[in-house]
Amino acid sequence: MSHTTTLLTGKSRAPFGPMRTRRAEALGAWTLLVPYTLLFLVGAAIPIGYAFVTALQKAPTPVDPTGGFGGLQSFVTVFTDHRFWNTFQNIFVVMIIWLPIMVLGIVGLALLLHASPSRFGGAMRFIYYIPGALGGIANFVLWVYLIDPQRSPIAFLWQGMGANSFKEVITAGNMPGILTAMLFFQGVGTWIIVVNGGLNGISEEVLEAARLDGANAWQLAWNVKLPIIRPWIGYAALMNVAYGFQLFLEPYLLRQISSGAVSPEWAPTQLGYAFAFTNRDFPAAAAMSIVLLAITLAIGWVIVRKSGMFGDEKETA
Amino acid sequence: MTKKLMAAGGTTLVAALALAGCAGGGSQGGDPPAQTDSGGPITVWVDPPRVPAAEAFTEAHPDIEIEITQIDGTVGGQTVRQAFANFDTAGEGWPDAIFFPTNDDIAWATSSTSNYAADLTDLMSEVIEGYDEAVLSFCEIDGQIRCLRNDAAPDVLWYDEVFFEENGYEVPTTWEGYADLAVTIAEEHPGKISGMLGDAYAVNRYLQAANCPTNERVSETEARIDLSAEGCGKMVDLLSQMQEADALSNQGIFDGDAAEAGQNMVMSPGAAWWGNYLYRDTWGVEAGRISATTPLAWEGDSEPTTGNEGGGLWGLSSHITGEQLENAITFLEFVATDPAWQVELSTGLPGYGPVQDEWLEQVATDDYFADIEGSQTAFKESLGYVAPYDYMMYDTGSVWTQTVPPTLIGGGSIEDAIAAFGEELTNQAESVGYTITQ
């Protein structure tokens, strides 16, 4: 109420200045918002809505080729599928191994870099970033070479483990390790730069004050820098969790090079793909994508709240 | 904040329910799309080894415009299947003719939800007459011929004649004799193997040859899978015996790193195309060593029983008519029957009978096999010994590669591996909608 009064008061006292400013601000806000909103609608909101609609359809089958409204049957299909829990088990095992290594690696290396602002630090920054430059397929091709027990520079490692062919390296037991290595080197360089950005934002006075209080490098990192960059770490964790749940390319291609030794439905996204294109059940594929969306949103929500990624969440965290 | 989110979620769900109630089931559930005639170029999809076939057609028929699309030829690959699922949903986009990368593809291509592959029974009756019934049996679905075989791929017994002569081994004629000799060779020549278990065709090589019901089509929605049947048990016993003696490799014939294993494989059941395509072109085994002989029989049987590995399938679109259809039929007839492809360029024994002798003569000209005449006889004889097998909506070979080699590599026995295979096979079959009978 008081807010309205102030506005009205302002309007009556200065009819042109603030009004113009507000209009300009509104115009600017809309100009900035429209491209994102359009992209969000086309790339996210409409597909999600379409997925909901599709998930509630009935899939035609050879027995009953008619379509129509199917209620929640596609969700029942997804949850009762014999591969459903296996795919999540696979992804959870990878996450449990990869995520802590990834987050520790990102934070540890970023702190090391930040503590070494000399030429050496600059050189290391470049070296750490190199794997990050090898995105997607390029990173995969590099790893295909590294895990080849006949040609790899670390072939002795594979052969020492008794593996002489791709099939013997790419086993169910080795999959989490191989994927952890692939994902770590693919992402760590980029995330070091992001977290380093956070570290660079820390005021020099704060660091100087801590030093004057007698903090050594370790105490400075643990007690001062880490709490300040917590939102950046949270953001890195969030994006990596989201990426982990969407793993598709790596297991799909590992299956190709191991001549089918890896299940075509190894990851949840692959199961969604199989529902659509092997089972010809698009409603089940849509239901699977909604399940994944719900999981990643829930995990994202927890991380956002706990890390205080956004200012207004800090107090509730 | 939470209440707002819940409200937004609830609104979305209600809207989705309303929309879903109004929406139709897509083209898959509606009437079949009308047949079209573009009158323009025909589009054909071929895997890499079949590109020369399409190119030979352009040379032989310059009057017909053709657009060649090279597709992923991986056996068990999903990309073609994915494209067709989209075409079937959209009601357009199909190629006019295709070489299916996996033979199982004919199952979805003829299912009531796709119905892509045209019934060729009347459209190409004269060509069909040229095929041996056994060869074309893989294309006969509910009394209709829905595809044409590119090549016949019956399994023969391949052996290294030089190695056999040097060591005084006699070529086996029975499955039991093959297993015994494999064990002997592995003991006397460690490193020499008598078979590979790691590829999608190993199912056909061993279980089909034992009449083990992994792929028995009872109807469009019923499948018979029974790995406890007698034939399965017989073969599992033989494979166990060989596996324990290190006579088999866990690698597959298509593995990129299998050349060494291939060169050490001194005998194995394998398709007629193995000789040129695998031994000569892929593994680089020198000329004058390898020969094919008559497939193996089970002790007590009067005739051999053998599997079939591939022998690709050509399909024609059911969605075209008029000039487009005529041109696509001309293409299909060429790739299935014309010596310009089937004799001069193809590495496999033609499925089409009238050109088989010409191809066999070409084998003599190549001068690769140690026993040319014996190999020629084996190729031709084996055609009639292939055990029945149906192509299904589930991909048997893919189930094999993801269960059997990993189990064996993990230290499991053949029995464990086949049990895992059987369990996953049943699961996959049920997940695509089959009711399983035993």
UniProtKB/TrEMBL annotation, chain A:
Any single GO BP term: transmembrane transport
Domain ABC transmembrane type-1: 87-303
Bilayer topology annotation: Multi-pass membrane protein
Pfam families: BPD_transp_1
InterPro entries from the UniProt entry: MetI-like, MetI-like_sf, UgpAE/MalFG_permease
CDD domains according to UniProt: TM_PBP2
Localization annotation: Cell membrane
Keyword annotations from UniProtKB, A to Z: Cell membrane, Membrane, Transmembrane, Transmembrane helix, Transport
GO cellular component, one term: plasma membrane
Transmembrane region(s): 29-53, 91-114, 126-147, 175-195, 232-249, 282-304
Similarity-based family: Belongs to the binding-protein-dependent transport system permease family.
Protein name per the record: Sugar ABC transporter permease
From TrEMBL, chain B:
Residues making up the signal peptide according to the UniProt record: 1-20
The keyword Metal-binding is assigned to this record: no
Family annotation (InterPro entries): Bact_solute-bd_prot1, SBP
Gene3D superfamilies (alphabetical): Periplasmic binding protein-like II
Key word Protein biosynthesis present: no
Matching Pfam families: SBP_bac_1
Record keywords: Cell membrane, Lipoprotein, Membrane, Palmitate, Signal
Protein name according to UniProt: Sugar ABC transporter substrate-binding protein
Organism of this sequence: Microbacterium faecale
Lineage: Bacteria, Bacillati, Actinomycetota, Actinomycetes, Micrococcales
